[in-house]
Amino acid sequence: MAAEGIDIKKAILFGSYAKGTAKKESDIDLMLVSSLFDKNNDDCIGRLWRLTKISNYKIEPIAVGEKRFIEDDISPIVEIARREGIEITI
């Protein structure tokens, strides 16, 4: 991600892969937390999606700003990632 100019503070695997219940058709839910996503940054989000295309896996990147990740108490997906997710190194 750094090569693409995206400074990721946290990468959190969640969903079926984190729970150990993934099937062949499952996608990989990956929440990526960066201060760049605190602003509306469509360019960075587009780069994330392009990076997923170079993988043989079906990766679903979820871009979340640092402030939102810390403070959001409304979004179910952020709450699930916080509660059930596994922080990984990328």
Describe the structure.
With 90 residues, the chain is α+β, with helices and mostly antiparallel strands. It has a single domain, classed as 2-Layer Sandwich (Beta Polymerase, domain 2), CATH 3.30.460.10. 33% of the residues lie in helices and 24% in strands. It is built from four helices and four strands; from the N terminus they run E-H-E-H-E-H-H-E. The protein has helices spanning 16-19, 42-52, 66-71, 76-84; strands at residues 10-14, 28-34, 59-65, 86-88. A four-stranded mixed β-sheet has the order 3-2-1-4, with helices on both faces. Helix 2 links the parallel strand 2 (28-34) and strand 3 (59-65). The chain is globular and about 35 Å long. The model has no long low-confidence stretch (mean pLDDT 88).
Question: TL;DR of this structure?
Answer:
The chain has four helices and four strands. The protein has a four-stranded mixed beta sheet, sandwiched between helices.
Q: What would you call the shape? A: globular
Low-confidence stretches: none
Beginning-to-end CA distance, first to last residue: 8 Å
Helix coverage percent:
25-40%
Strand sequence of the main sheet, in spatial order?
Answer: 3-2-1-4
Q: Radius of gyration, Cα only, in angstroms?
A: 13 Å
Task: Examine the secondary-structure arrangement and name the CATH architecture.
Answer: 2-Layer Sandwich
Percent of residues in β-strands: 15-25%
Order of helices and strands: EHEHEHHE
The number of helical runs is: 4
- CATH level 4 superfamily: Beta Polymerase, domain 2
Overall residue-averaged pLDDT value: 88
Number of strands: 4
Instruction: Quickly count the domains.
Output: 1
Which structural class do the helices and strands define?
Answer: alpha+beta
